[in-house]
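Hey L., structure's done. Input below.
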Amino acid sequence: MQGPQQSLGLLTLVVRDYDEALAFFVGKLNFRLVDDAFVPEQNKRWVVIAPPGATGGAHLLLGRAADEEQARCIGRQTGGRVFLFLYTDDFWRDYRDYLAKGVEFHREPAEQPYGTVAVFKDLYGNLWDLVQMKKQEQRPDAADPA
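Output:
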């Protein structure tokens, strides 16, 4: 008998403004706009984006801060730790493209046992890892097969 099958569908990223967030994620990081619909009863938009070429995995829901408490969390959703991990099939292509588009890197590229990685900041200061894995089974978050 097989147990439950679950996956993460959406992660909310608190943003200051929908359109400025879209300009960064779609315009600079080449994310794809999946959904952008107005929700009149809540006076907000349902804005979902996904990395280029993503066929599965979690997408980002861009959630505009609704009050001062949420606004204080913009750019610090994880207290200064790397927040999201963006896997790529070509690290150097994406790294050069991001640099050319003005994306700020917090930590320069480095070769690690699991692959090539650099840390960049999004428009609000959240830290992201850009990672090209050497082998899928060597992901830092993968379970030990032994």
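The mean pLDDT is 92. Helices lie at 18-25, 68-73, 91-100.

-- N.
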